[in-house]
Every structure is written in C-alpha cells, then in structure tokens.
Design goal:
alpha/beta; FAD/NAD(P)-binding domain; 5-stranded parallel sheet; 451 residues; 7-stranded mixed sheet; 12 helices; Enolase-like, domain 1; 3 domains
Length: 451
C-alpha cells in the first residue's frame, strides 16, 4: 500500500475519464475521480447523445411527408419543442445515473467539484487536498466562439440543447460536423435555417464527392447555405438579431449559433503549477503512452486534441487502465477509424479519402454508385445516396469506404470491421448481398469509374 490516497486520480468524468477510472478500479486500484459539471461529459450531456435524439426528432417531419406515397393520410402534424426538451432531459438524467452506478459499482470515489493540480501528485478540490501516485487529465473540450462585436448574443451547441423555445429563423456559423448536423436538426423542426461557412465547401477532411453531394441535398431540403461567408458583427434589434457579413450584407434571425470549433479545457486547473506543456492550441502534449512532460501526470481524449471522438477516448482510457494495473502494454490503433456525420442524409466514412489515397498510393481504383434509395421510390423525395470505395490496385486492399445516405453510420460500422481485418476488393465481390438493401451496393460494385 502506497502513502498516497489513491493509485490513480482522474480529473474529468467524461467518457474517457470514466472508462479509465472504473477499469482501473476493476483491476484493484484505488481510484478517485473529480467532476465539476456532469457525469458523462460532453457526449452524454451536450454532445453525441442529445444531438442524435434531436436528429431523430427532426427527421420525423420528412418521414411523415414520405408516408403519403405509401398510402398514409396524415392530416395534421404538429411539434412541441418543450416535450422534446423535457424527454431529452429525462433520458440524460437517466444516463448520468448509469455513469454514477458504473463508478460506484467498481469502487471509484466520485468527488463533485473542480480539481486544481497542486503538484505532481496532488489535487485540491474545494479546499481539500488529495494525493495519488498517478494523475489523469480527461477534461475534454468546450465550444470556442470568436471575439466579434455582438459576441454576447451568440449561442453555442451547448445552449442549443436547452433553448426555451424554437426561433422562427436561425443562422448557424461553421463548417464542421456540429454545424452541419444542427442545420439539419433545426431545418427538420421547421426553423428557417441559414448555414454560413467561411470556406468554399464544408466538412473539410471528408471525401470531396460526398461533401459536394451533401451540400446539394441539404439545399434541396430548404437549408440556405452560404459558402465563403462570415459574420463580422451582430446587433440586437427589438426581438431579433441582425448579422452583418464581411461583404456588408445583412441577415436577421431569432438565434445565431456558432459551431466554429472546440478548444481543450486546460484553463484554470493548475497545469502551470507543475509546468505541463501545451501546444499552440492549448492542448496537453503527451507521448505515445499518454504521458505528459511530468512523469506522474497523463492525459487522454479531447484535451489532447488528437482524434476527438468519444470511442477514441474510451479506447485510450481502456488501454491506459490496462497498462497501469493489468500489466498489458497495448496501444490504440488510430488507423481506419470509422466515423459518421449525422447530417441529413448521414455521411459515414472509414479509411482514406480519394485525395489522401492518391497521395499515398501510386495506383488506385475508385468504385462509385449514386442512386435514389428504394425507401423513397413511392414519394417525391429524390434524395441521392452516394457510395464510394477506394482500392489499392497493387494489393487489392480496400483503403477507403464512404457513404452518404440513410443509416450510413450503421452500415459503415460493419465495413470498418472488414477493413480492420484487411479486406480486399475480391472479398467484397465474393460476398452475397442482402436484397433489397442499400448496403448490398457495396458488394455489387464491379467496374471502377474513369476520371
């Protein structure tokens, strides 16, 4: 038994922190965890979970519209925002309880309050100090809003989950997955939605074909997208907000939401007391073992600003717990990580984009398919699904798979497993498809496209 209060003390009870804490405790370690907001972190409270619930809610209007072609006569359709918020809050509270039970069940001591690092083995919470052999920082990230005149009128995605009422009009600024997803959410709930992005096309880093098609499909759904646009000033006039763009045009809305990035939560937690090194984005620098320049202090998840995805933080927490207390020295494989943008339609992807593949491989084949899904065949909805596969010709290895369409995330998850297993194009070709499904297209694409 060491002289420390704990073997491991975790700062931040988000996905990565909770996983590291409870797995460490399950191996017999004495573990404490501190959280000053809510158990489950961003994902459970103001991220993945409530966002996906909102996506489901917003897509109902389109499903009802499509139902007419299948013989359903729905005369009256209404939506109550307060009911969605209430039910969402109930579900989040349930999940907070689940996280608390997971921690309690493995013997982790949960302490409510903001932890300040005092020295390499000590944290202080509300005036009380706790010592640990190892400290783990897993505080995640927080929305970042630019310094412009009228900044006080801006909401972020955090506040969007708790609006008292829906605005008639909203302006969303940003080109990442949060901006794109919320544009679909508000539009689907009947809000007149404008999406502004300073660049020529949103979702930088995703495959070009899917980005281009998604922009078209979103505009077909009624979202006003203005690329190469940015706000320079916001003014409040009566009960509305007036956004003045950099070209001096003006747009009015009831709400203006910024989704222009997130910053690592490294402020006001005592990192300077021990000289923890940060990068230019104020993210904690770590080595391949998630260790900072202070040997007893580690960091995982979004606070390190590397691969900012909940499942990645979970994997890092698991690997670290096993390394600390189960003598297993495994690492997280960051290649071929499947991910999905819950836009409308969904965008799922795993592996290299076409541009990345052309840079890395000397000879590749591209397989593409674009069609209207069968589920829309009896409606006036002409939304297009795009499927794309990238193959290294020399090895026949599938190096990238991308999909834009309904349930893209569900489909790409399975394909991600195949790619991890080293699937070749001939493996896809020899697989019998499930008919009729959209997913079978991935095993029936026989001829590569020509540029």
């Amino acid at each position: 038994m060491s002289d420390y209060d704990y073997d491991l003390f975790v700062i931040g009870a988000g996905s990565g922190g909770v996983r590291a804490a409870r797995m460490s405790a399950s191996y017999g370690a004495r573990v404490g965890i501190a959280e000053d907001r809510y158990l489950g972190g961003t994902c459970v409270n103001v991220g993945c979970v409530p966002k996906k619930l909102f996506v489901y809610a917003s897509h109902v209007s389109e499903e009802i519209h499509n139902a007419k072609g299948f013989g359903w006569d729905i005369d009256h359709m209404s939506f109550d925002w307060s009911t969605l918020i209430k039910n969402k809050n109930t579900e989040i509270q349930r999940l907070n309880g689940v996280y608390k039970n997971l921690l309690d069940g493995t013997g982790v001591e949960t302490i409510n309050g903001r932890a300040m690092i005092v020295d390499a083995h000590t944290v202080e919470i509300d005036g009380k100090q706790f010592t640990a052999e190892k400290l783990l920082v897993a505080t995640g990230g927080w929305p970042s809003v630019p310094e412009i005149p009228g900044k006080e009128h801006i909401i972020s995605s955090n506040e969007a989950f708790f609006l008292e009422s829906l605005p008639e009009k909203i302006i969303i600024v940003g080109g990442g997955y949060i901006a794109v997803e919320f544009a679909g959410i508000f539009n689907g709930l009947g809000v007149e939605t404008t999406l502004l992005y300073r660049g020529p096309l949103f979702l930088r880093g995703f495959d070009q074909d899917l980005r281009t098609t998604l922009a078209v499909e979103m505009q077909k759904k009624g979202i006003n997208i203005k690329f190469n646009s940015n706000i320079k000033q916001i003014d409040k006039l009566d009960n509305k907000l007036l956004a003045t763009l950099e070209d001096d045009t003006q747009l009015a809305a009831g709400q203006i939401m910024y989704a222009t990035g997130r910053k690592p939560m490294t402020d006001n937690m005592g990192l300077e007391n021990v000289g923890i090194e940060l990068n230019e984005k104020n993210a904690i620098k770590v080595n391949n073992d998630y260790q900072t320049n202070v040997p007893s202090i580690y960091a995982i998840g979004d606070v390190t600003d590397r691969v900012n995805l909940t499942p990645v933080a979970l994997a890092e927490g698991m690997v670290l717990a096993k390394r600390f207390f189960a003598n297993e020295h495994k690492t997280v494989d960051y290649s071929d990580i499947p991910t999905c943008v819950f836009s409308q339609p969904n965008l799922g992807t795993v592996g290299l984009t076409e541009d990345q593949a052309r840079e890395k491989y000397s000879d590749i084949d591209i397989y593409k398919s674009k069609f209207t899904p069968m589920k829309y065949s009896l409606s006036d909805n002409d939304e297009k699904t795009v499927m794309k596969m990238i193959v290294d010709k020399n090895s026949d290895r599938v190096i990238g798979v991308h999909m834009l369409g309904p349930d893209a995330g569900e489909i790409i998850q399975g394909i991600g497993i195949a790619m991890k297993a080293g699937a070749r194009k001939q493996d896809f070709d020899s697989t019998i498809g499930i008919h009729p499904t959209a997913a079978e297209e991935f095993v029936t694409m026989r001829e590569p496209t020509t540029d």
